Amino acid sequence: MSPESPQRPVSTPEAMQKAFKERLQTILTSQLTVENIDSFADTAYNNLVTVTKDVVNQYTVQFPKESALYSNPGKEIEDAAFKAFNLGEVGEMLDSIQAVKEKIDYLKSYISTSVLSTETVIVPPQEGVEVQLPEEGDDGSIQEKKLIPRLLTLLYILKHDFDLTPEDFSVTKGSVRPEMWRKEPYYRVDVPYLERQVYICDEEGNASYIFDSSKLQELGTSLEELDASDKGEKNALIAQHFGIGVRIIQKSNWRQYVSEALTDIKAKENVQSRPVSEFTKRERRNFLPFNEFQTDVRALYPGKESEPSVSDWYLKEYKLHPNWNSAPDRYYKSKGWEGWPELVGVENVLKREFPAFDDFQAEVRAFYTGESSINKWYHEERKKHPKWHSAPDMYYKSTGWEGWSELVDKMFATFNTFQTEVQVLYPGKGNVQKWYKNERKERKEHSKWPSAPYDFYKSTGWEGWPELVGIENRLKKEFPTFDQFQAEVRAAYPGSGEIQKWYHKARMRGMNWPSNPQEHYASMGWRGFPELLGIENRLKKEFPTFDQFQAEVRALYSGKGNVQKWYKNERKVHPNWPSRPSEYYESKGWIGWRDLIKKKESSSQA
């Protein structure tokens, strides 16, 4: 039943009570989704206001003496009316809706002001895969893809479903390059307390990925490597290593599936809707007092020296105990917490008081054997060193940490030396970035090559992947003159197939052509894709004069429906009609689509 739907007249307070409870239940059990998050709280508020007015109106009818005590509408009569029908506290309901609204507004503000940015393209385009071209509108313009607030919904899930705040996760916004079809960036959301790394994009048609960071560490996959992997590589990683991650596409249960995958990476895609509403006060987990919590933890901690760390063990174990907090170091901060070793009472045995950063760095450098994947080496080596932290990048973040390379004093080559070595080995064809990334044996044999050269050398000579191997004149985005461009396109066109679709596929294979030639060459000779290829002359297309063309169109147009859409379908059987009459007849009599068929202002607009 819709909360706003008019109610059938009922004669007794009991019947009224049942009807109102059903309407309130509809409001208070409504589910927030990625599709409705922007309007969710406002819709619920407006619906509740409507029900409240109806309750008060019926209160004055059913209880005239009692309602007469309240001369003005307001909180007092609303409370009395809800009490009379035994509907609960309207004030609490309004407060719960307001709390959800404030939560969403806060997260919107966080996204717009506090998200980190990187020049790296997170989840770069997949090389060699057919691109889904943007749809073309009736007027020939490219239709913008719809934006879906997935990032906002993800942060809401972390806040609402897991009680996490921005202090418990970090969001990094990737870059988007002009030549990419995707116009919105991917974000990486790191959630250490859930051991999750999430890759998410708001542009429709882009899947979301959730990875188990502990399994990534075991595999030796670094954060920068995962950032730089495209969708095909992420899909392959998920397929090859069961339980390491999931790919989530946009479906009606997207919110539920994401929430489940943050808890259980192996969650099934067909999860059921969560029964608890956004507004009903959730039954909060009652976490144990610190002394009882510590007793329980100590009783279960295995105490094995082979265990990487107390925190690592805890992050797996706490999921089995509803009354254990996911972040006890924060929850019990002022209630008795001293540290992870102290929690299990093994600080004197294992001396798990982590060393100062300088001492830690000196120890690591003494043991480092030169492996190219420092991250992978470290997590293997630290099993032998109880004092080494499982996440030094987080633990020493504010006390000296700069990066894995700096930790072991790994000296990368200067840019000139690096560029020379790369140019000698590059085979001379193919995507440079993919070659550099996929030819593992090349990079592993050269320990002084950084895994992310675009970041490492960005201020010492880096210009781009093509420039790195000396082919910048072929691929750099200084486009040719229109005559040169037209000659190249005509030479490459196979002679058949939809021109525009072929063009966009061809330019993705390394041609130095603009993504929007109609805009780039608008004032340099552009007349349309057919004219670009000279197809009219090749097929002996002789377009009629404007007057002849207009007469033909008027004779065939039915007078109903969108003119441009009708024309696009109709011209398939008229080879002498240009694909873009607005351009072809621009200086020959063309005024507009409405004038072409002489549509009156009062008719439906084209």
Kindly list the characteristics that best describe this protein.
flat; six-stranded mixed sheet; mainly alpha; 606 residues
Which helices and strands, and how do they pair?
Layout: H1 13-28, H2 40-62, H3 64-67, H4 75-84, H5 90-114, E1 116-117, H6 150-160, E2 170-173, E3 186-191, E4 196-201, E5 208-212, H7 213-219, H8 223-228, H9 231-240, E6 245-248, H10 254-263, H11 290-300, H12 310-317, H13 328-331, H14 340-344, H15 347-350, H16 357-367, H17 374-381, H18 392-395, H19 404-407, H20 415-425, H21 432-438, H22 440-444, H23 453-456, H24 465-468, H25 472-475, H26 482-492, H27 499-508, H28 517-520, H29 529-533, H30 535-538, H31 546-556, H32 563-570, H33 581-584, H34 593-597
Parallel strand pairs: 1-2
Antiparallel strand pairs: 2-3, 3-4, 4-5, 5-6
Shape: flat
Provide mean pLDDT, rounded.
79
Strand order of the largest sheet: 1-2-3-4-5-6
Q: What Rg do the Cα atoms give? A: 32 Å
The tally of strands reads 6
Number of helices in the DSSP assignment: 34
The largest pleated sheet is described as: 6 strands, mixed
User: Strand portion, in percent?
Assistant: under 5%
**Which blocks of ≥5 consecutive residues have pLDDT under 50?**
347-351, 536-540, 599-606
N- and C-termini, Cα separation: 38 Å
Helix content: 40-55%
Look at the helices and sheets and give the structural class: mainly alpha
